[in-house]
Design brief:
The structure holds 3 protein chains of 3 kinds. Chain A is an alpha+beta fold. In chain A, about 35% of the residues lie in helices and about 25% in strands. Chain A is built from 11 helices and 14 strands. Classes of the chains: A alpha+beta, B alpha+beta, C alpha+beta.
């Protein structure tokens, strides 16, 4: 445990308004702290540069899953465990549940939150690809107001996002418009459980009369941020899921991803597997 | 070095007993349990939330106590390995670990047993896959997991015989 | 032979403490006035220490600071030789080498202080690979970078090539492997005028630490005391390294006058302590038309890191095991351990044999392919039998039936049917999942090699109390493998008592004799036999004194002890190891009776490979071994299951990423060991041909599973995919490239 604890402050604001005021009071100085599954690891390694944290774990305004006929809206503090337990999410947003089940372990799933995962902005996170393909929207609040951002536009670069100092993620919204869509998720990790992703693939498609009417594809760990494979999507729209479409889409995918070598895997492996997972996705669409 | 924090007083319930302690707000709950409350049954194996040796139950949920800051323990109800047996009476999972060889060096055992107990609270009759899954966040270097698995099965299905 | 207690799954002696969290590991202990200690380490792989700067806003006057100058005796961690410094003085030879020690009562301030020490090092060129070391790009150790070399010769290898129908060559590599005991290294030390130096900690060999501290402090035997605390796994990783951390804690304790505790966090433990020696093996094998091995020319090299530590012994075991359980008339094994500028590599379960056995068992599968016969047929035609000679010249005196073991393993795993079935299924090129089944056949010698046990001259003491409790005093340590329990069973069997009446005294050099290190699969076979002998001696004393008659009950025994003690003040027995007269070993020629006994095994692995991702899954694993006598079935099976799991890690998952001699993936997130969902149910089967010199016939088994697991998996992957596996770990990245090459 390599952190100098006396240097780290943490406060518990009494409600969301108080939290937002605190965040606004000294922009960039106070940071939100939810379940701690990312921040505490940094703290223990002696690599947490920020020193003042707001404990938002108890803020009821950030919890809860609301369901209407058109939308499912999740509070930012929804944990991976809560995602997996929710009947509607399991039925209509299975990729998000898969991502939740494959993130960390039972213990980290009880404390890890969707909002925290989004704000941590790791390109290797497993929920973001699912959120992308579901056209999620992120609600961002501050002392001066609230706005909704389409999630695919949220991440702007490695660990950079549309979140200013003083802003907090309040909710994540998913449209209940994927009934009947085919869905595919595969995380290739360092092992079968509690693994960091080497590459993660989420895909949903509406297949009508044997053709891909609409499709969304997103990958993790192949770019500085979660990546929506728009070029591959373009080439697949309107096509029959078969070898010809696959070949072209694979080439397009290869051109739009930018995997690297790191401690866990290689660019070459990621590139090769990305193509293969696209192939597996198309098999699901054809089957 | 800039000092910013003062120690705070945290009140919580541990193993059924109301407790208070002073700690820096971001002190690890693991260290608070071991050093302030002298409950050394919870172990540190990695300090990064990977091995599960520090697993405890917090408000009924299994958590890695090395990843929980002391401030967030305010008002929480916690159970550690020390809270499992009732006097000399071992929990059925503890007894099964003794009978079926679920513990070798024992360092992963407290976390492993709590993970198993927590699994059973959520799934009283887990199938094999659920057992493996429920323990997949607890690493064991000694056993290869087989006798851990058999211990949990024995605790859950005492009449079942395995080869 | 009917036994009462031996052969039963008596529950673990310290099981209750472990399942209730009451077992006390070193970090659970706290002493009044105790300080914490940390180690400041070299940032460079090799170079001259120019200056040490104490910077930052740290109240340095509050700190205890120790450097090499504070060492009262010799600045070394004594092991086989004395080349490894306790603290680097003028020169560093590997990244993370210890240079400065700090102690303070505030753990958090201590970390800040550690960060604030800046060591200025003038780097010099370093060597990081076996190739560069052999080429002597730099001479970093001794005259030629070679810690040790061996040449074992049987028959006439050079004369055999001419008559050979087939000659098959191959090179094989194994990587470093981290022991990854879940309890990191830790020690507490206290030094006083009155008591001398005392250390408590996580360790396998109290007397190794004892010897090292004697030399470091320049103190006589009785002024050093080493106590083993409950140890959370060792696997060899706590064989030699604890001497280093004990030395550090003790130096801080001496300077401060207070107890000092040093506990490594996981990152420090991984980056600074020992790992399995990486290896390179080259085989050239001559085979006759009939599939009989005519000659094996083996070249074996291990990377020892920066100091000698135990490399000569690792090399020895790897060398002796390199030619396997086969009758080959001509064998030559040339081997060497070389220096590189990495933290010294060290003991890890198997100790050289997993490296050379991987090469051999993978190679023989390839040899079979060239010869045109099934791999099991090649083995069948060459398995050694009683009366034949192993490569080192040892005549096999056991009724070994490798063929029988192999057939049993095949039956249990469905090997033959699956070989055919998988081959047929795999031939469908559209299938993404390829399945394979492979095996390895091997042996593992128990006990120290050659004259090693004689040199150790292990001792065990036993004492009976007036209430009939019997204490076992031995230096052998419990670290999960079951020492306490099997010693109690062995004594209970010999004394006709229950295990509850037997107490194992905590290994403490002030009280227990030196039973040798807890390594080399020797604890049951060698030390257990001493326990048995000591018990028999105790009984004899009671019988001869007229205190006990035949057919006595437990109550009679207690009464007899009380009466004896009343008359003679104490009831003790003491045994010292006696080397069997019919075992002869020549250290010069490196030949003869290498081990008193061998365990023999055949392991079968069934895998599936997803060719889209090159992920390998082990779906079934069968481990069949002949072990003399199973003292405790649950504990014995637990040893094999755990060892196979480590072997699966060795084969597939555990990859140390090196950058200029430093492990850069020193986190559990990035150094990957299997979880409960990564492993199949490992199926373990024992056969028993009692070994006359083992307690109740038992041989050693602790390291055996590390030898055969990785090659069985490699052979299964080869069967599944056609990939010619030559190195481990077989990561998905490596396998994907090899799969592409096969399909190209």
């Amino acid at each position: 445990m390599r952190a100098f604890l006396p240097a780290y402050e943490m406060e518990t604001p009494q409600d969301l308004a108080a939290a937002l005021d605190r965040l606004a009071s000294r922009p960039g100085v106070w940071k939100p702290f939810a379940g701690g599954t990312d921040l505490m690891v940094l703290l223990e390694a002696g690599k947490l540069p920020h020193k003042k944290f707001l404990n938002i774990w108890n803020l009821g305004e950030l919890r809860g899953i609301a369901v209407s006929s058109e939308l499912v809206t999740l509070g930012a503090l929804t944990t991976y465990a809560e995602v997996q337990r929710h009947e509607i999410l399991t039925r209509e947003f299975p990729l998000l549940c898969r991502a939740a089940a494959e993130t960390g372990s039972v213990a980290t799933q009880n404390r890890g939150t969707l909002g925290g995962n989004v704000a941590n902005a790791s390109p290797a996170a497993d929920s973001p690809p699912a959120l992308i393909v579901y056209d999620a929207e992120i609600e961002i609040v501050s002392a001066s107001g609230a706005r909704w951002v389409p999630y695919p536009l949220f991440h702007t670069g490695y660990k950079k996002m549309s979140l200013q100092a003083g802003e907090l993620i309040r909710r994540i919204r998913l449209a209940r418009s994927h009934a009947g869509w085919k869905q595919y998720f595969r995380k290739v990790g360092t092992r079968r459980a509690q693994a960091i992703s080497k590459i993660c693939f989420a895909g949903v498609a509406r297949v009508e009369a044997g053709r891909i009417a609409d499709v969304r594809i997103a990958l993790g760990s192949v770019a500085p941020t979660v990546l929506r494979a728009v070029r591959a999507e373009e080439l697949l729209r309107g096509q029959r899921p078969g070898d010809a479409a696959l070949q072209a889409a694979q080439d397009a995918l290869g051109a739009e991803i930018a995997p690297i070598d790191d401690m866990r895997s290689t660019a070459r492996y990621r590139r090769h597997v990305a193509r293969n997972l696209l192939g597996e996705f198309l098999e699901v669409l054809a089957g | 070095m800039r000092e910013g924090a003062r120690k705070i007083r945290v009140s919580c319930v541990v193993n059924g007993t109301a407790m208070s302690f002073d700690a820096y707000p971001m002190a690890r709950l693991l260290d608070v349990l071991r050093e302030e409350l002298k409950l050394t049954g919870t172990k540190e194996g990695c300090g990064e939330g990977e091995c599960g040796a520090c697993s405890i139950e917090m408000d009924g949920a299994l958590v890695n106590s090395c990843l929980v800051p002391a401030l967030q323990a305010e008002g929480a109800k916690m159970r550690t390995i020390e809270g499992l047996a009732i006097g000399d009476s071992l929990h059925v999972v503890q007894q099964a670990f003794i009978t079926h060889g679920g513990a070798q060096c024992g360092i992963c055992t407290p976390g492993m047993i709590l993970a198993a107990v927590n699994l059973l609270a959520r799934h009283p009759q887990p199938d094999d896959a659920q057992i493996r899954d429920g323990l997949s966040g607890n690493l064991c270097r000694c056993t290869g997991y087989r006798k851990i698995f058999e211990s949990v099965v024995a605790a859950v299905r005492p009449t079942e015989r395995r080869a | 032979m009917e036994t009462r207690v031996i052969g039963k799954s008596v529950p673990r002696k310290e099981g209750r403490e472990k399942v209730t969290g009451r077992a006390r590991y070193v970090d659970d202990l706290s002493f009044p006035g105790m300080l914490h200690g940390v180690t400041v380490r070299s940032p460079a792989a090799r170079g001259r220490i120019r200056a040490i700067h104490f910077e930052g806003e740290i109240p340095w006057h509050e700190f205890i600071v120790v450097t090499a100058r504070d060492i009262p005796g010799k600045n070394c961690i004594a092991l086989l030789i004395e080349d490894q410094p306790c603290l680097a003085a003028e020169f560093v030879n590997h990244p993370e080498e210890a240079i400065v020690l700090l102690a303070h009562h505030d753990k958090h301030l201590l970390e800040e202080a550690r960060r604030a020490v800046r060591i200025e090092i003038e780097p010099v060129p370093a060597v990081f690979s076996i190739e560069d070391s052999l080429a002597r790009k730099e001479v970093i150790w001794g005259q030629d970078n070679i810690f040790k070399s061996f040449c074992v010769e049987k028959g006439d290898v050079d004369g055999a090539w001419a008559g050979a129908e087939f000659v098959v060559e191959g090179s094989y590599e194994t990587g470093a492997q981290e022991q990854l005991y879940i309890e990191p290294q830790g020690m507490i030390a206290q030094v006083s005028e009155a008591e001398g130096v005392t250390v408590w900690g996580s360790l396998q060999c109290p007397h190794y630490v004892h010897k090292a501290l004697m030399i470091l402090f320049g103190l006589p035997r009785e002024r050093i005391r080493v106590v083993q605390t409950e140890t959370g796994g060792g696997f060899g990783g706590k064989e030699e390294y604890p001497s280093m951390i004990a030395a550090h804690a003790a130096l801080l304790a001496r300077k401060s006058g207070r107890p000092v505790k040093i506990i490594y966090d996981r990152a420090e433990d991984m980056v600074a302590t020992t790992k399995r020696h990486p290896s390179r093996t080259r085989h050239v094998t001559a085979v006759g038309r009939d599939g009989k091995l005519l000659a094996m020319d083996i070249d074996f090299t291990v990377d020892g890191g920066a100091y000698e530590t135990l490399s000569p012994v690792v090399l020895s075991r790897g060398t002796i095991h390199a030619a396997g359980p086969y009758a080959c008339p001509n064998v030559r094994i040339r081997s060497r351990a070389v220096a590189t500028n990495a933290p010294p590599h060290g003991a890890f379960r198997g100790f050289g044999a997993p490296q050379s056995v991987f090469a051999l068992e993978r190679h023989l599968h390839r040899v079979a392919e060239v010869v045109g016969i099934a791999p099991e047929e090649l083995r069948r035609r060459n398995f050694i039998r009683e009366g034949q000679t192993l490569a080192v010249g040892q005549v096999v005196k056991e009724k070994v039936d490798m063929n029988g073991l192999m057939e049993r393993a095949f039956e249990l795993s469905g090997y033959h049917a699956k070989r055919k079935q998988f081959a047929a299924a795999n031939s469908d090129s559209r299938g993404a999942i390829k399945q394979g089944i492979g095996f390895a056949s091997f042996l593992h010698g128990a006990g120290f090699t050659g004259s090693g046990e004689e040199y150790l001259a292990s001792e065990v003491a036993m004492e009976a109390m007036a209430d009939g409790t019997v204490h076992i005093l031995a230096g052998s340590t419990e670290m999960g493998q079951g020492t306490n329990t099997i010693f109690a069973q062995i004594a209970a069997e010999a004394l006709r008592l229950d295990c509850e009446q037997i107490k194992i005294i905590q290994p403490d050099t002030a009280y227990v004799p030196n039973s040798g290190p807890t390594v080399a699969s020797r604890t049951a076979m060698i030390v257990g036999k001493l326990v048995e002998t000591a018990a028999v001696g105790l009984l004899k004393t009671l019988h001869d004194g007229g205190f006990l008659r035949a057919g006595y009950s437990a109550a009679d025994f207690s009464r007899a002890c009380a009466e004896h003690i009343a008359e003679h003040r104490a009831l003790k027995s003491f045994v010292k190891y006696e080397h069997p007269r019919d075992l002869h070993w020549d250290d010069q020629k490196y030949s003869g009776d290498a081990y008193g006994a061998y365990a023999w095994a055949v392991y079968v692995a069934e895998v599936s490979v997803d060719v889209r991702t090159a992920e390998v899954r082990v779906n079934d694993f069968v481990a069949v071994q002949e072990v003399g006598k199973v003292i405790n079935p649950v504990l014995a099976a637990g040893q094999i299951e755990g060892g196979v799991a480590q072997g699966i890690g060795f084969a597939l998952y555990e990859n140390v990423v090196w950058q200029e001699g430093r492990m850069v993936n020193a986190q559990m997130t990035n150094y990957v060991m299997p979880t409960s969902v990564d492993l199949p149910a490992i199926r373990v089967y024992f056969e028993e041909l009692p070994y006359g010199r083992g307690p109740a016939g038992a041989k050693g088994i602790g390291e055996l599973p590390l030898d055969g697991t990785a090659p069985a998996i490699a052979n299964a992957i080869a069967h599944a995919t056609g990939v010619d596996v030559r190195t481990i770990p077989i990561t998905a990245e490596k396998l994907l490239e090899m799969l592409e090459a096969v399909h190209a």
